[in-house]
């Protein structure tokens, strides 16, 4: 909190079935005050007013009132606004502000603690129903309860990364910056190739080849013995060359 940053979070009361170009028109309106702007779908915007304070010779509350006044005069739109030293506090302040009003949290430790500590822990960004239920089992219901717990205890309850993030946010620290051109969460591409007939697709299918019957190895038996004693090919036929006339094939074919 050494740098005096002024972050504005806006939420516009857009009518049902509004013009799709209305958000772009609101973007151009906000760009008249600061180039560090990020539109938040479907009806919000975040802007860094730190550099605009000296140019407009106004404080953050004065610039916010002027933005809301122009949005009402040009487009008949009421808006809720929250101003804080970082994006998290500005978004939480905006969520608690009714349309047509604004909430400004000064960049002091006393003002930040007075705003955050009484709030329920489920209002912190990134705390879902499951995490809130886990914290409630241990008696941690408000941001003040979480801020007074050591970081290692929160990491044992929620995990290393979630516990560290919760500890930082419970003390009012948020490193997020305003990115005018944020990177998309995902990207995809699709290309459809036209159907094409190839020579293989035009040629008729070949008939299935008939399966060949497996070849049986020859079986031999001696002429002077009724029972065969050799049913496989000879490994060394030269040793049986002298007995060649005595060897013949069986008369029955193999099955």
Structure description:
The protein is α+β, with helices and mostly antiparallel strands and 255 residues long. Among the domains are: 1-108, 2-Layer Sandwich (Alpha-Beta Plaits); 117-172, Orthogonal Bundle (DNA polymerase, domain 1). It contains 10 helices and 7 strands. The chain has a 5-stranded mixed sheet with strand order 2-3-1-4-5. Helix 8 crosses helix 9 (160-170). The N and C termini lie far apart (93 Å). The mean pLDDT is 82.
Output the keywords:
DNA polymerase, domain 1; 11% strand; flat; 33% helix; 255 residues; five-stranded mixed beta sheet; alpha+beta; 10 helices
Summarize the structure.
The chain is an alpha+beta fold and 255 residues long. 33% of the residues lie in helices and 11% in strands.
Cα-atom Rg, whole angstroms? 41 Å
Biggest sheet details: 5 strands, mixed
Broad CATH class of the domain at 1-108: Alpha Beta
Order of helices and strands: EHEEHHEHEHHHHHHEE
Indicate the proportion of strand residues: 5-15%
**Overall geometry:** flat
Number of strands: 7
Instruction: Classify the fold: give the CATH topology of the domain at 1-108.
Output: Alpha-Beta Plaits
Chain-wise SSE layout:
Layout: E1 7-12, H1 22-31, E2 37-40, E3 44-48, H2 52-56, H3 60-75, E4 79-84, H4 87-95, E5 102-104, H5 109-116, H6 129-137, H7 143-147, H8 151-158, H9 160-170, H10 199-202, E6 221-222, E7 247-248
Parallel strand pairs: 4-5
Antiparallel strand pairs: 1-3, 1-4, 2-3, 6-7
